[in-house]
């Protein structure tokens, strides 16, 4: 639907007022089409009004209970509201309705992470990366999950792939620095943490990491 493509482009460009006007017209002309309500919900999430977005996704699902895009959008809104368990329920509904892309599994992983379900998060992020290898943020979250579960070598490979794709990813450099420090590769760790700070001067964790390394080296010289 050409109109919906225009709406999605306007949302991506943060031209929210234009998108809202277009969607108002779509909904008034096609009140039984869940697409208009779903996209209005997505617009509200982009505007930071996830609480209101829930109503639009509900309306879309009343019109078509198997409308996967609405279930996915509903899950995103619930995630933004901190309702992670309910978000996972909606993501499962979206999957049953035929949604099967990297974004869905990324959000399942994010929700599972918030709920402390490391195994579920790892599996979801892995699937997200398999479906969309270019998604650097999904790969970064996958690497974090691997590290959290103790598979440091595999995590390191993924963090390195992240910075190959995005040389300005400060958090990936920070985590590589932590891995190097844990292996007692102090010079390498210092270089990686400095790189993280260079890319993100307000990176508190990297700054603290460097202080810890300084203390460690000072202790050795005493």
Automatic annotation (TrEMBL):
Q: Which InterPro entries match?
A: TPR-like_helical_dom_sf, TPR_2, TPR_rpt, Ycf3
Record's keyword terms, sorted: Repeat, TPR repeat
Recorded superkingdom: Bacteria
Transport listed as a keyword: no
High-level lineage: Bacteria, Bacillati, Bacillota, Bacilli, Bacillales
* Positions annotated as TPR repeat: 34-67, 102-135, 170-203
Q: What is this protein called?
A: Uncharacterized protein
Q: What is the species listed in this Swiss-Prot or TrEMBL entry?
A: Sporolactobacillus inulinus CASD
User: Mind telling me which Pfam families this protein's record contains?
Assistant: TPR_16, TPR_19, TPR_2, TPR_6
Database matches in Gene3D superfamilies:
Tetratricopeptide repeat domain
């Amino acid at each position: 639907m050409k109109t919906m493509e225009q709406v999605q482009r306007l949302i991506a460009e943060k031209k929210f007022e234009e998108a809202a006007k277009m969607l108002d017209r779509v909904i008034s002309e096609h009140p039984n089409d869940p697409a208009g309500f779903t996209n209005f919900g997505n617009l509200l999430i982009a505007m930071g009004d996830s609480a209101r977005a829930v109503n639009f996704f509900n309306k879309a699902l009343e019109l078509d209970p198997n409308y996967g895009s609405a279930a996915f959008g509903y899950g995103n809104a619930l995630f933004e509201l901190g309702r992670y368990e309910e978000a996972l329920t909606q993501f499962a509904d979206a999957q049953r309705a035929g949604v099967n892309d990297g974004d869905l599994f990324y959000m399942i992983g994010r929700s599972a992470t918030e709920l402390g379900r490391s195994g579920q998060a790892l599996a979801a992020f892995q699937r997200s990366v398999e479906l969309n290898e270019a998604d650097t943020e999904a790969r970064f979250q996958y690497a974090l999950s691997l590290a959290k579960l103790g598979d440091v070598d595999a995590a390191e490979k993924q963090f390195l792939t992240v910075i190959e794709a995005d040389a300005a990813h400060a958090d990936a450099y920070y985590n590589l620095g932590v891995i190097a420090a844990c292996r007692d590769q102090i010079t390498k760790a210092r270089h990686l943490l400095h790189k993280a700070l260079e890319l993100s001067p307000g990176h508190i964790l990297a700054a603290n990491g460097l202080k810890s390394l300084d203390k460690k080296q000072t202790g050795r010289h005493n």
